[in-house]
Write a structure and sequence with these properties.
With 375 residues, this protein is of the alpha+beta class. It is built from 11 helices and 18 strands. The chain has 2 domains: 138 residues, Creatinase/prolidase N-terminal domain (Creatine Amidinohydrolase, Chain A, domain 1), CATH 3.40.350.10; 222 residues, Creatine Amidinohydrolase (Alpha-Beta Complex). The strands form 5 sheets. A 6-stranded mixed β-sheet has the order 4-3-2-1-5-6, sandwiched between helices. Strands 13-14-17-18 form a 4-stranded antiparallel β-sheet, with helices on one face.
């Protein structure tokens, strides 16, 4: 992505910092660092002054790699955590920040990480720490055209991964084997990585997000596959539920109900709608179908650099320390179908990545939703 894109993002961040009375952002979350600079890695930090200067601190081993990838004004390498603390202090001094407020990512930092960034040898005593989460979330919520293109590419890779995962569903295979085939296909299709893959079978399909185990699939059981490739730094999110052999009438009925619920939410996904309205649309259909007590959690969430990010429905936003999202703007990307219909013996779920348009939605993850043979 061109460096002038990152410069424009930094400029928008500075405007929000000014509005909120924040003198600097001190970031450690890879996704946020990637968004503002073009590079985000663990054991690193980015500091942005309100005047728009960008400083990076990375392991000494990584300096040359970061120089090639990132947009920044200052960079320093450090060899250990003590030197990292002194690097942070150095940039506070270089930016002339002796008092004021620094924004931290409260939704990402552990207490230990926060203690390190605010160590007396790092942060000047006169600088108060505040939550800078909403600045980065609001910046990342509406996607630029280049970001949408990357998410589209990730969605195509997701479809290839799902194709391989569904093909691997057979009696005797393990959940882990299904995940492995999906992940291998995503790599071969162009993914540089992926977020954790969820594959659950039989009664484990009642889990909100069942990680793959060595449990073997049995004929007549449902298998839930949820994968999230990363292509050129951006994600997509897709889930399908399929049956090992012909499904029962009860399984078909529940699956058809969930598809109607997901479709109702997708059709409503246009500029001006709220996340709570989308949540109500999906859960309302399931409730009308007699399963109001069989749903759990937020069925919608944002997608971008991370496979789950802002915007979030209000309840889920509160849980994650995010603010309630405003009505959705065009070029927001969301996943619809994040949580399923859980009957007790088994559950069903279908999820797709959807682009919010000014006149209507576009489903980016295009793969059949059939439950049984012939899928």
């Amino acid at each position: 992505m061109a460096r002038d894109v990152h410069a424009a993002r930094v400029k928008r961040a500075c405007r929000l910092m000014g509005e909120q009375g924040i003198d600097a952002l001190l970031l450690a979350k890879p996704a946020n660092m990637f968004y503002l600079t073009g590079d985000g890695r663990l054991c690193s930090f980015v500091m942005v002054s309100r005047e728009g200067e960008v400083a990076m601190g990375v392991p000494t081993t990584d300096v040359e790699d970061v120089r090639r990838l990132a947009r920044f004004d200052h960079i320093v390498g450090f060899e250990n955590e003590i030197m990292m603390i002194h690097a942070i202090s150095h940039f506070f001094g270089q930016f002339g920040i002796k008092s004021g407020r620094v924004g931290l990512e409260y939704t990402f930092l552990t207490q230990a990480m926060k203690g390190m960034l605010t160590h007396p040898h790092a942060k000047p005593e006169g600088v108060a720490e505040v939550d800078g989460t909403r600045i980065m979330s609001s910046l990342r919520m509406v996607k630029e055209e280049g970001e949408v293109a990357r998410i589209r590419a990730s969605a195509r890779v997701a479809a290839e991964g799902m194709r391989a995962g569904v093909a691997a569903v057979r009696a005797g295979a393990t959940e882990s084997m299904v995940a492995a085939e999906a992940e291998r296909a995503m790599r071969r299709a162009g993914a540089e990585g992926f977020w954790r893959s969820y594959v659950s079978s039989g009664p484990r399909t009642n889990l909100a997000h069942g990680v793959a185990t060595t449990r073997r699939l049995r004929r007549g059981e449902l298998v839930m596959i949820d994968i999230h490739p990363v292509v050129d730094g951006y994600s997509a999110d897709i889930c399908r539920t399929v049956c090992v052999g012909p499904p029962s009438d009860a399984q078909r009925t529940a699956h058809a109900l969930y598809l109607r619920a997901q479709r109702a939410a997708v059709e409503k996904a246009r500029a001006g709608v709220t996340m709570d309205e989308l949540e109500e649309a999906l859960q309302g259909v399931i409730g009308e179908g007699g399963h109001a007590d069989h749903v759990f959690g937020p069925p919608v969430h944002g997608v971008g650099i991370e496979f789950e990010e802002a915007p979030l429905p209000s309840g889920h936003a509160f849980f994650h320390g995010e603010e309630e999202a405003p009505p959705l703007a065009a070029n927001t990307v969301i996943a619809v179908g994040n949580c399923g219909l859980y009957t007790g013996p088994w559950g069903v779920r279908v999820e797709d990545t959807v682009l919010i348009g000014p006149r209507g939605p576009t489903v980016l993850t295009r793969f059949p939703r059939a439950l049984g043979p012939g899928r």
